[in-house]
Amino acid sequence: MTAQLPFPRADVENLTREEAAQRGGLLEVTRYRVEVDLRGAPERSAATYPVQTRIEFTASEVGASTFLDHLGASVESLVLNGAELDLAAHVGPARILLPELQAENTVEIRSTSRYSRSGEGLHRFVDPSDEQVYLYTQYEPADSRRVFPVFEQPDLKARFSFSIIGPQHWQLRSNSPAVSRMPLEHEQTTAGDDAAGPLVRVEFAETPRMSSYITALLAGPYHHVEGHYRGSVPDGATVEIPLSVLCRSSLAEHFDADELLDLTHRGLDFFHAEFAYPYPWGKYDQVFVPEYNLGAMENPGLVTFTEKYVFDTAATDAQYETRANTLMHEMAHMWFGDLVTMHWWDDLWLKESFADYMGSLAVDEATDWTTSWISFANGRKAWAYVQDQLPTTHPIVADIEDLEAADQNFDGITYAKGASVLKQLAAYAGRQAFREAARRYFARHAFGNASLGDFLAVLEEVTGANMDDWARAWLQTAGVPVLSAELDAAGMGTGPGRVLVREQGIDPATGEPVSRPHKIRVGVHVLDPASETLVLHAAQKVFLDPAAPECLTVVPKLSVPADVPRLLLPNEDDLTYAKLSLDAESVAAVLTYPVADPLARATVWAALWSMVRDGELPARRFLAAVQQLGLGIEEIVVVQGLLRQSLTALERYTPADERAALQRDLAARLAAELTRTSGGDHQRATARTLATLSRRESSQLELLESLLDGGAEDHGISGLQIDEELRWAFLQALAAHSRVSLDQLDAELAAKTTARARIAHRLAAAARPDRRVKVAAFGQALAGTDDDGQELSNDHLTATVEGFTVAGDPETAAVIERQTEAYFDALTAVWERMSQGQATRVVSGLYPGTQDLDPGEEPAEHPVALRTGRWLQENADAPAALRRLLIEEQDQLLRGLRAQAAAQG
């Protein structure tokens, strides 16, 4: 009898950095050949599919053992170097053991994998509008192992040859172009109305060396539009690339393929000029897929995007710009991340921070949008500032011990803080030096792996400067720098009235002060009586030396006019990453007068929001400023951000005794704003926010009902398109207050059954203020299944969670609150039962984080804060990723309670 090998699932599935390093030192992987059989995918009951995998690799130590990662349904055969291995002894729930390696090895595996409903692995989606089946893969950071056995770590690059068996009329695609498409005349599926029909086997060209997490497969009756790119790199070499954009067939009428192809041409021109390295992946397909967990994924040659970027309802210019930014971000990854890849997830920033920065830069310089850096300041950096003030913050170069930690680190630090620091680096080292460093980096490490040291090496070559101090200060410490500008009342060196800039920072990991070098511009904005706006009076470049006494820097040749409203802005042009502490006169000025310059205005509003979150600016003053000054801002991306922040301010940072009146005031202001413009982005954004606010606030429900019934003109509203998105947003608000029945919601869904409608219907149904409804929705969320026991897809799980949390009245809020103990009791089981992505939706989405502080109560004494602390204490050995979510949610709760306390005081 062969002894069973131990494969404890919880431990083995979570690959550690140490294990990856040991395996990476032992192996060099040559190539994979993988065939995926999707002939059964159209069948209604399809749950699994067969896979055949052949892997060639070498081992530096003869006789050693290693393992493949595999999260499939089963393994049917395992042959290593011609010898069939015993499955019971060598196949575990997450790994396949390969013993007694030779110098050169070949392993062949026949296995079965599961279709995904969570967006991890090979996701299967049935379009409710026409019952067509669509498939796509999503692997980052480690989900290719859900499809085929693989050495799942980024530094074990190899060449991949894929083939797909599927219906003849489907689009079957992978990273590389198809090299053959052969009918399977004797293997047709003929049974049932959902049969695949005639089948084909499509073989794809072998890829260049690449990591497993960026391999990709696509299958389904996708609508597609072809294009072609012809361009050149700076040395004059011509580059030709076949292009294609794809989406579900039912969305074809809304698919603006020409616009997407035009953006693709612009991006490729920009990156070829910037990087001087021709696009290395042959074709360039971009496909927009349903139920996607991310904005997009940089699979070379087959980039996947959320189909939310196919605008089947009215979209604002900010949404179109966001889509362009995402497109450019993923295109930057073709070089940063795909061509040159990090060894392990510690250096995840080497691709994500660069792509985030380059995406914004490309939109700014290669498209017609002029608001890219405004969007960056208002959106991406705001995300970073929030993340960097959590107790779980980390340096940009993170310490990633295992795959669970890697999955958690796709966060605001890795993306937005890193990108912000790179923008500062471009200012610090110079744009030309930054460009030349990137070019050398790609030329030197193409199709390989690199580290922080490799990037700093090329930067030092170009600049001639030692970058160690810069890297240590910016990349290897955590926490948000704080910049403040003040008048030199003491006459330090230059005389009274001059401007001083103070830089402060604490590394939360060590508790020690940390100073960073900054190259910034300091601006003085003063009131222009003619326009009644704050306009730029003067600005001066300055270098903030971290070694300066008391971290104070005198700004030379910058004076401030007296006796006039003014703003001192210590980050003009938003060149650096820092939270701004505005002096009292500046705060008074910006809460009274609009700032004329768009980028300065976005920077100021970001500073005001930080003050709200820090309890330094009461939410009521922020809300008043948004209504007085914010709604009239021209840039819709800023307006949308302020509206989102207003809702958060009401939910989290407003004392309970003020909330009802402030909600009514905002709802009335939004209703009035609908009449101010006829159509357009501002009206659209206002209507969306009014609908969301009305889930919890009832004063404008009659207006929403009237708008649904076509009564806009009765309220002086013109130009507002009540399309599918707004109809369901209004219905969700009405459902939360029992103003529509389940039968009415069902009828609305039956009238137009789309993917969007099904998700919206589920949210509206769960939002109804009925105890039985809430208890049922809570149970579905914890189980991850619907009433029939069917697994909820990722989007439907999110809708269930979000609908449950809607409380349109105090009685419903009390019902929700009574589930708190059950929530904490279920956390460990949820984490063990669900994939990490699905579990995260439940753990974060159901956390009771919107709480009120009773008069005289200390934030730390709030029952939910105490219950969270007790769970963390009692579950010290819980998975680190789960504990991180709870720690972050508790911190957000306490921050809100402290802001409420400050406002009450």
TrEMBL record:
Protein EC = 3.4.11.2
Catalysed reactions, as listed in the record = Release of an N-terminal amino acid, Xaa-|-Yaa- from a peptide, amide or arylamide. Xaa is preferably Ala, but may be most amino acids including Pro (slow action). When a terminal hydrophobic residue is followed by a prolyl residue, the two may be released as an intact Xaa-Pro dipeptide
Residues annotated as domain Aminopeptidase N-like N-terminal: 104-214
Q: Which Gene Ontology molecular function entries are recorded, alphabetically?
A: alanyl aminopeptidase activity; metalloaminopeptidase activity; peptide binding; zinc ion binding
Its required cofactor(s), as named, are:
Zn(2+)
What does the entry give for GO biological process?
A: peptide catabolic process; proteolysis
Specify the Peptidase M1 membrane alanine aminopeptidase domain's residue ranges: 261-474
Pfam families this protein is in?
ERAP1_C, Peptidase_M1, Peptidase_M1_N
Keywords, ordered alphabetically: Aminopeptidase, Hydrolase, Metal-binding, Metalloprotease, Protease, Zinc
Question: What Gene Ontology terms describe where this protein resides (cellular component)?
Answer: cytoplasm; extracellular space; membrane
ERAP1-like C-terminal domain: from which residue to which, for each copy?
Answer: 568-852
Q: Which family does it belong to?
A: Belongs to the peptidase M1 family.
Name it. Answer: Aminopeptidase N
User: In which organism is this protein found?
Assistant: Nesterenkonia sandarakina
